[in-house]
Amino acid sequence: MNKPIVNLAETHPLTWRLRDDQQPVWLEEYQSKNGYFGARKALSSLAQDNIIKIVKDSGLKGRGGAGFPTGLKWSLMPQDPAINIRYLLCNADEMEPGTYKDRLLMEQLPHLLVEGMLIASFALRTYRGYIFLRGEYIAAAVHLRRAIAEATDAGLLGKNILGSGFDLELLIHTGAGRYICGEETALINSLEGRRANPRSKPPFPTSAGAWGKPTCINNVETLCNLPAILEHGVDWYQGLSSSNSIDSGTKLMGFSGRVKNPGVWELPFGITARELLEDYAGGMHNGLTLKAWQPGGAGTDFLPPDYLDLPMDFEHILKAGSRLGTALAIAVDNKINMVSLTRNLEEFFARESCGWCTPCRNGLPWIVQLLRALENGHGQPGDIETIDQLCRFLGPGKVFCAHATGAVEPLQSALKYFRAEFEAGIRTDLFNNVRAIAGVQPNLLQLRW
Asked: Of the residues 201, 236, 271, which one is the last residue of a structural domain?
């Protein structure tokens, strides 16, 4: 019996156009594969408010990590046509360790992002869009610039696009290599030529963003979902996900670490982490077992292997005590020491702090200092308790932005599940024994003596 033919265009809207030789899909080939169909439909037969409603009804959520409903964010933009200056920013500053999904789309399907930005700009009435691109993504910058030039020459960008009266200019801005630029207001400051510090909110960017004008910021993968939603409709998009999930559509997911087949795949929301690890990533290398895993990049909480049967979506991962994040999971094998791993992560986050608020600026280096001592077996009684308190002091509402809060997520989960490995780094020499016998209790927040 013949197997039914699967129409990849209807099951893998983000990746079905990818070439086997991994070369970029340029304009002629892209258009031969229904490229710009969604944009033509939007500009020729849909009102801006209707497009926003379609995106809202589709259930599309932000793919940058937070999972905020895209249509809801769009609806916060002022719709008054008299406001003639507003901006669309594409957050392509992909610097989360272990994350590489947006790079795939930009390098191999640059026109998909251009089309997504055209649709979003038309719906939001923005006359200019910026792609804020990680500076190290040199190939992506080259490919996007060519795609923008091709689209401009074909009348798909520029003045009076497709005779609709709508104008759009797309520009690429390459960042200087700071992780904090992934935070939307720090991104805006950097785009304006300022130091990349987060801004106070409110006002939110949708009311006062780039150069004080209404600004919408969306992730690369988020924008790349738009052409297929407009082409196939809301019901189709909602039906893509597994019955295990309330989230709509597909998601670029992956596994890295010491797995047999690390990579990224477009999969429906609701597939389990075990399926992702075993069926797609090939499982762990021979002789290794899974010790822990991070569902969505270095800034998400570790989960033990017991949670592998969770559906990969925003709700289930959050209930388990972590975040879906970028959905590019990291596997930790049984040969890795959790103290060394968390020290390495915290060094990165401490280095990438913008230094704007004291808890983050001073707290993260202090954590690194304590972890380094534990890693080398020089930890002192009270060090782990100090780390616990620092994690709480860097929690939500106690720092200026989410950088420090995300930074301590892997640390606090490592302490929860692997505390014995941290306790093994405490010194038990005569000096500490004497202090304990004398009844001297350490001040948990004192500077190291």
From this structure: 236
pLDDT digits (tens, 9 = 90+) for 91-128: 999 988 889 999 999 999 999 999 999 999 999 999 99
Specify the pairing of strand 250-257 against strand 328-333.
parallel
Listed residue (128, 126, 123, 10) closest to 71, CA to CA: 123
| Per-residue CA distances from 382 to 204, 370, 371, 375, 449 (Å) | 41, 10, 12, 15, 12
Q: How many CB atoms lie within 10 A of CB 140?
A: 27
What number of other Cβ atoms are within 10 A of residue 81's Cβ?
8
For residues 266 and 288, what is the distance between their CA atoms, to the nearest angstrom?
A: 26
Same domain, 322 and 355: no
205 part of a folded domain: yes
Q: CB count, 10 Å around CB of 92?
A: 30
Residues 181 and 319 both lie in one domain: no
Kindly list the distances between the CA atom of residue 390 and the CA atoms of 155, 365, 429, in Å, as whole numbers in the listed order. Answer: 55, 11, 26
- Could you tell me whether strands 263-268 and 290-294 are parallel, antiparallel, or unpaired per DSSP bridges? unpaired
Q: Which amino acid is located at 40 in the chain?
A: R
Q: Please report where in the chains the tokens 């960008």 appear, as a residue.
A: 157
What residues make up the domain containing 80? 8-236
87 in a domain, yes or no? yes
Domain at 360, CATH number: 1.20.1440.230
* Digit-coded pLDDT (tens) for 342-364: 999 999 999 999 988 999 999 99
| Domain count for the chain | 3
Q: Hey, how many other C-beta atoms are within 10 angstroms of the C-beta on 2?
A: 4
State the CATH number of the domain containing residue 61.
Answer: 3.40.50.11540
Q: Are 144 and 133 in contact (CB under 8 A)?
A: yes
Same structural domain, 54 and 126 = yes
Cα 220 to Cα 21, 304, 339, 386: the distances in Å are 22, 30, 34, 39
Q: Assess whether 305 and 318 both reside in one domain.
A: yes
Predicted TM-score (pTM) of the model is: 0.91
The predicted-structure confidence for 417-435, as pLDDT tens digits, reads as follows 999 999 999 987 634 554 5
